[in-house]
Amino acid sequence: MVYKAAMALISCVIAVGCSSNQQIINKIQLVQTAGYDKVGDRSLCSVILTSYIEKGKASSQLLLTESDSSFDMIPRLNTKTSKTIQYGQMGMVLFSKTYAEMGIGPVISGFCRDPKIASKVQMGVTDKEASKMMEVANKAQESLYLMRMVEQNVQTGNLPKMNFKYLLFNYYGEGRDIFLPYFNVERGSVKIDGLALFKQDKFVTKVSIREAFLLKLLTESSRNGNLLMPMKTDNENSTIHDYVLMKSIASKANYHYNTSASEPIVEIGLRVRVLIKDTPSWLHLNTKEQRDAFERQLGSYLEKEAQDFIALCQSKQVDPIGLGDFVRSRTRTWNEKDFYAIYPKLRTQVTVHLSIEQSGVGEL
């Protein structure tokens, strides 16, 4: 009897709690995507808000406000709505390229001090105004559309691991720089077009989605990612190129700092297992010799691509790979300023050991 009474009381508490939450959710609007633009010396903040009309139904709207600082975004937005704005479920923050070039450090440090900001928040850069990009994204009627695009491309595509937790590690850690997904619009649809690379908190350059895959290989054990490799036909006089698409199914990077050479060199060994499908009709992989030769060809191509990517980062004085952090871990008297003075001329050597797990015809 006591047990039944207790269960009844618990049920009542749960019911009251659900009713109370339902009333609260009807009185608030949730910020789920936010954007930052520069308009002269002022900041333009835009948000996609979600309002819950009834159980199972929600609507979203785009709201904008202008300020001298990004810090009072929420108070200013609150003056434009009849419902209280909450941002504890925010999943995406988008910066225009112009804003990112001036520095996103104040936003990062502000979010870092705010307990309402979750570590899973994604950040990105767009070549357009952030408000215009969000306008396009809002047509999907999914308030977290951009965040889910990033997460999907991390899990199954070319993007390396990223969220606010990783960003803070790269931003505050010595010997490494942050990178964020780069968005643009293609034929009316939002597209992830590569990565935005930063020096400290300022946007420096954009790299392609191909190079995002190379960064993924160089910084983590990757199970996904694709790279299209051009191949000349067997006719030496032909200028036509066929292509082979390789899909990574497993990879591992090993780093070694060799100081015994005449000049110190960072040696990077990549072990990559790939799937190859839809090969050109003239390419034959029937024998072990043919397969081994093709693996060496793919490996050499990947080595050159990775080496070129590292050289690009060095020329732009950005370090998304974290080579500075790696050398710091192997050097007793490491100094960040001194290291990046010689960083553009730092010697690196990439060696790829590639194995083909499957080849044939089909979809990747």
Automatic annotation (TrEMBL):
Keyword terms of this UniProt record: Germination, Lipoprotein, Membrane, Palmitate, Signal
Main location: membrane
Domain Spore germination GerAC-like C-terminal: 193-360
Domain Spore germination protein N-terminal: 22-184
Signal sequence residues: none
Membrane disposition: Lipid-anchor
Pfam families: Spore_GerAC, Spore_GerAC_N
UniProt subcellular location: Membrane
Protein family: Belongs to the GerABKC lipoprotein family.
Protein's name in the database: Ger(X)C family spore germination protein
Lineage: Bacteria, Bacillati, Bacillota, Bacilli, Bacillales
